[in-house]
Each structure stands twice: as structure tokens, then as C-alpha cells.
Amino acid sequence: MAQVIVVTSGKGGVGKTTSSAAFATGLAQRGKKTVVIDFDVGLRNLDLIMGVERRVVFDIVNVIQGEAKLNQALIRDKRVDGLCILPASQTRDKDALTREGVQGIIEELSKEFDYILCDSPAGIEKGALLALYFADAAVVVTNPEVSSVRDSDRILGVLQSKSKRAEEGKEPVKQHLLLTRYDPARVERGEMLKLDDVLEILAIPLLGVIPESESVLKASNSGNPVILDSESPAGQAYADAVARFLGEEKPHRFIEAEKKKGFFGRLFGGRAA
Amino acid sequence: MSWLNFFRTRRDEAAAGSNANLAKDRLQVIISHERVSRTREDFLPKMQQELVAVVTRYVAVDPDKVQVNLERGADLSTLAIEIELPGPKGKLT
């Protein structure tokens, strides 16, 4: 049986798709057969972040409506073995997704894959509810910013009441916090919410802190999940988060501001990647 | 002493009164209220309607002259309902 993981946040633009792409790639790099599904019907973007946009033929709605076989719609990643992408539809509206349809897809994927990642759309409407409904675990992507933290708390409430596990009274969806776009220098200056503050408010276990990093935009520009950039702080932070998800102990990095560079450091150091 | 403040500002800002702490305090208050209303319905709108209904049993009240102010706090919330009652010259309907 595959484990179903939803990557969600409530608020848009906090890094769900970037995190889904990185996380799925990271799991596959560690030998886990992984499929990542884009649930953002009408506004698909996972294909672009994964760099497979020119290979999309069929999508999740085609499969649900019986116009294509699941295997025809799955796009196999050429960089990492055992990684597949199931794109969202760009032209249909989100009502084309049905719970029965999604259930059928997840059941079929369960036979072949170890992990099924569901990249949720923003909001708490149908698409987002379907993305989290079948989840065993949730990665809640949050920015250190008031509206994002509030929306994350709201989505935690939804996970606790509207997921399949909640409805059936089973063990609750395992919740993980992924704090993204963290800027330790601004935290030190008292301009940005601290990691500890966010943890205190949301009160769920921390999976990782992804520092604000130029490499994230570079990665999306080129269609390579940022985790493949193993030199970059964001790539390393995602790799750590994946390792923690799989049960490894990894100390948290990138949560303290870098020491000010000395004269020579400034002369030869260049900018942070 | 004011020249001393010049040196103090930055460090003080990074301490208790910082911008980030303001964010934290605001979040803690609103989220604790929202968590409560997840499990039970927010009774304040209904209570306000009922209170106004009681008053209208005795006095004719212009619905436009009812002001409701709600302030959600960490330890207590205040609901202030200001109902403008017509004076003795006012016509009862």
C-alpha cells in the first residue's frame, strides 16, 4: 500500500508546488517509487516546475472521465528513476474532479508506487478538499507571515475534520510543518516571525525550514526541482526534510543568520546561492 | 538622555516590541478565537440579534441606529451594542 501525502497550505504562493516537486524528486532519489499529482485543475503548474510541460498529453481529468488510461497520462521523469508526474487539466474546471474518480486513481497508483504526493491548489474549495481527502500524511507549507500562518491553522482544522481518516474515525492524518522562504537575517532584526513563534502557534512537528534562496527561482526558470541543485541551501534543506520524513535524524540547518563576512570574505565570497 | 536613544532603538526593536512580536501576538489572539469557532458556532451575531429584539419589544428602534462593536481579546472579548433610543419627542410606531 502506498502512503498518500498531501502538500497543502490554504494560502496561495507560499511554495506548495515548489515543495511538491522537490519532495517527490527527493523521495525518488532515495529509491522510493513516487508519483506526484497536480490537483490544481484549471491552473496547472507542476508540469512547468518539473520541466515536463512539453510532454503532457493526457491529464487527471481525462483519466477520471475514461478518455485515457492512467498509464498513458503518467509522465515518467527522465532525470530520476521511479518518479512520475500526473498533470492537472488546464482547460476543464475543478468540478471535473470527483471523489470517486480520485479514489479510483489513488487505488490504482497504490499498486505501483510507494508514495503518492498530492499537490493541492490554494484555498479550501473542492480541489483542495479532494487533494487532502485521502491523505495519510500532510506537509503544511507555511511562510513566516501572518496570513500564511492563519491559513495553515485553518487547513489543519480541515485536515482534522474533513479528511477520510477524520470521517472514518481512524488515526488522524500525520501533520508536518514545512516553513519556507525563511530569512534568518530578517528574523534576527525582529522583522519576521521566528521559527519558534510559528511552531508555538501551529503546534505541529517541524519537518524542515527552507531558507529564502535565489536558487528556487533559478530552479523554476529551468524546470529542475530545486532539490537537484545540491549546492544550494534550499536544495539541501529539502533533502534534509525528505530524510527526516523517512525517519532519519537530521539537525535543522539554515535557521541562524550567516555570520557577517570579513573583508576577504566580502571581496571573494560573492552572493549566497 | 535623548542621544542615548539613538543607540538603543535597534536593539529594543529586536526585543519585546518588535514588529515580528506584534505579528505573533495578533496571530495568537485571532487563531485561538478561530479554533473555538471551529467546534461551536460563533454565538455573538445571534446574541446581538436577540438583544436588539428584546429592546424593540419595549422601544421602537431604528435598525440603522444600532451599532455593534466587537473586540476579540486574548483573555476576554467585549461586545458593545449601542442602541440609539428615540427621545420623548420621538414618535413611537
Distance between the termini of chain A: 39 Å
Residue fraction in strands of chain A: 15-25%
Run of helices and strands of chain B: HHHEE
Q: Main sheet of chain B? A: 2 strands, antiparallel
Main sheet properties of chain A? 8 strands, mixed
Family (chain B): Belongs to the MinE family.
InterPro entries (chain B): MinE, MinE_sf
Pfam families (chain B): MinE
Organism (chain B): Roseococcus suduntuyensis
Gist of the model:
By secondary structure, chain A is of the alpha/beta class. Chain A contains 13 helices and eight strands. The longest helix of chain A is centred in the middle third of the chain and has 17 residues, at 146-162.
Descriptive overview:
Chain A: Interacts with MinC and FtsZ. Chain A: Residues 5-226 form the CobQ/CobB/MinD/ParA nucleotide binding domain. Chain A: Belongs to the ParA family. MinD subfamily. The complex is a heterodimer of chains A (273) and B (93). The radius of gyration of chain A is 18 Å and the shape is globular. Chain A has an eight-stranded mixed beta sheet with strand order 3-4-2-5-1-6-7-8, sandwiched between helices. In chain A, a hairpin with a 6-residue loop joins strand 3 and strand 4. Chain A is built from 13 helices and eight strands. The longest helix of chain A is centred in the middle third of the chain and has 17 residues, at 146-162. Chain A has a single domain (3-246), classed as 3-Layer(aba) Sandwich (Rossmann fold), CATH 3.40.50.300. Chain A starts with a strand and ends in a 5-residue tail after the last helix. Chain A has helices at 16-29, 46-49, 60-64, 70-73, 99-112, 126-133, 146-162, 164-167, 184-188, 195-202, 214-222, 233-245, 263-268; strands at residues 3-8, 34-38, 75-76, 83-86, 115-119, 137-142, 174-182, 206-211. Chain B is of the alpha+beta class and 93 residues long. Chain B has three helices and two strands, in the order H-H-H-E-E. Chain B has helices spanning 2-14, 19-39, 44-58, and strands spanning 66-71, 78-83. In chain B, strands 1-2 form a two-stranded antiparallel sheet. In chain B, a hairpin with a 6-residue loop joins strand 1 (66-71) and strand 2 (78-83). The N and C termini of chain B lie far apart (65 Å). The mean pLDDT of chain B is 77. The A-B interface holds A 145-146, 149-150, 153-154, 157, 161, 187-194, 197, 200-201 and B 13-15, 18-21, 23-24, 26-28, 30-31, 34-35, 38.
